[in-house]
Hints:
Bound molecules: 7-(2-hydroxyethyl)-8-mercaptoguanine
Number of domains: 3
CATH architecture of the largest domain: 2-Layer Sandwich
Number of helices: 14
Structural class: alpha/beta
Strand content: 15-25%
Order of helices and strands: EHEEEHEEEHEEHEHEHEEHEHEHHHHHH
Amino acid sequence: MGAGPRRVLLGLGSNLGDRAAHLRAAVAGLGDEVVAVSPVYETAPVGGPEQGAFLNVVVELRTAASARDLLVLAQRLEAEAERVRTVRWGPRTLDVDVLWIDGETVDQPDLVVPHPRMFERAFVLVPLGDVAPDLVPPEGPGDTTGVVRVGPLDGPANGPAAVRVVGPGRLGGALTRALGAAGWTLAEPLGRDASDVDLADAADGVDAVLITTPDAAVAEVAGRIRLDPTTVVVHAAGSLGLDVLAPHERRASVHPLVAVPDAAVGAERLVAGAWFAVAGDPFAGRVVDALGGRSFVVADEHRAAYHAAACIASNHLVALMGQVERVAGGVDVPLAAYLDLVRATIENVAALGPAAALTGPAARGDEATLDRHRAALAPDEIEAYDALVHLARRLVDGPPDRAG
Ligand code: GSY
């Protein structure tokens, strides 16, 4: 026979897919024993591999369920969110931890209550302070860097938003389609050449203005939008920090790592579990959630390096394929014949990492073959060829010894 109803605290977290929707579904699944739900916090990931930011809440229940019943319930909710356990401490659609049961401690191999790490984690202690302040240690939650309050789980801060796109080119068009399909309201889009009056009014009646103009126009467009402390001004430029959106108070950046050849294909790719670089106001996380994407935060001082890597991964790869086309075409072999090799190589990189995926003469140190290649190449292909041989050797040799 179990105890009578007592206070139970659960910690919920999500950093994969529509994070707010996973949390909402879990809270709904807890039924009418829910007494209180903390506000949602967007929190930097603690532990595990590099992964996107979490949304966390703490839920208070009044229930007679045993500790074991609660563990089974937590696991059922995780399974319903289609959580897949692949990487330990890796990204997950839903994590439900039994944090605390009034008057009870448990020490079993698969269940320890109070949760052994709850008092070390700001992503638990901050929302815990909203629903059960008596459980937060007197010295407070410690370092709360990276824990940002978003708003109530069922509140307007987590439902579909109303946005206006300024700069409806390929990316603007793709975002318009994808967010519209997610139930967001899209106000009449504006071109960057819109009249001063129209652009000044761009923030009227919407939660956010998404600026998707070419990078060089972002600051000027942002400067023409009338200041409104409630509306978020968001840019989608990979290499720009938030400073270009000054003097708007609520600023954010959402940059999809997605190739957008046109609005229709771009929209499909944006909702296919894409990665996004985000910064600034938590509204950025709402955009990513609405698209079912994954995100990581890039601070202003790291934007240029982040964007350089994105260009290397995309544009430079295309430039390299241009060289493949020229060199192969010179001996009448079509580019198409190389494409399966390219795809399989990318898969190897994804599975093994670049260093282990590297094969071929540069990896083997086979100078005779490299020399034969150089002798066969047109003179204007050799500089690029040698630059890539140099990069291959760096992979073989490992990171340079920076000591001394
Ligand atoms: O232990 C819960 C899963 N988890 C989280 C989390 O919920 N939030 C944050 N910020 N980091 C986390 N690392 C793990 S594991």
